[in-house]
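== Sequence and structure of one protein ==
=== Format: two labelled lines per protein ===
==== Data for this protein ====
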Amino acid sequence: MARAMFEYTKTVLKKVSFNSELFCKEVDKALKRLLPYEIDELVIWLKSFTANKPELNVCLALIP
């Protein structure tokens, strides 16, 4: 079940990536819901996903 939540989170983040405000809200939700090791994986994924989307880099500041 936990793995499904991680995959679902990535799907949602991809769908809302057109809007940086929505993207940041979803990142915040994900940080509250995911397990610690999944957050580590999410950080890696976020850095890769936002590499060519500078408008979404603001959301990386939410990560502790």
